[in-house]
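for the record, two folds in this file. i put them one after another cuz i was lazy. first one right below, seq on top, structure tokens after. the second one comes after a little note so u can tell where it starts
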Amino acid sequence: MSMSELEAKIGAESSVDLVKVAQALHWFDHDAFDNQVKWILKKPHGVFAAWCYTNLKIDDEFDHVFHKFYA
């Protein structure tokens, strides 16, 4: 989805309180999705929440933070 489609279908920049994903994050283009989430979430307190049945592995920085809360 392009940024113009995102704005037309979801809302303007910094307009969403919560973005949540259940059981689907592994299918996403992570770079594009990350940029879209950063753009649409309210600043500075928008929340991104994701969950799955197994431990998700994204990259070292993400994994380090995730495992602090998962344990």
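(here's the note) second protein begins now
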Amino acid sequence: MKPVTLYDVAEYAGVSYQTVSRVVNQASHVSAKTREKVEAAMAELNYIPNRVAQQLAGKQSLLIGVATSSLALHAPSQIVAAIKSRADQLGASVVVSMVERSGVEACKAAVHNLLAQRVSGLIINYPLDDQDAIAVEAA
């Protein structure tokens, strides 16, 4: 199924795609009536904003990276669930990179994977001694 676009929402709501964009980006210069009409169209069509496109356009969205040991383990999965829950409350997104092997190099690889996704912040949930933590931070 093809994803619903700004243009689809605009056509459905009878407004321009720029107006839909303004509503999605919470611009203040949209009338309440128009905002309601666009939001109703978005809900009706199950429109999901494309966060990657917004990032490419320079829009700031809070993306939190979590480097963690295996989510098959109870404690790490509970920690990531709590991070995700709080992020949802703040309107942020979470991306997870699991440290697949043991050791500081594996942790560095997970961190690099997250940094390549342009995360706004990073949480490392992986056991590191002070020296290894400094090495990961420097990487």
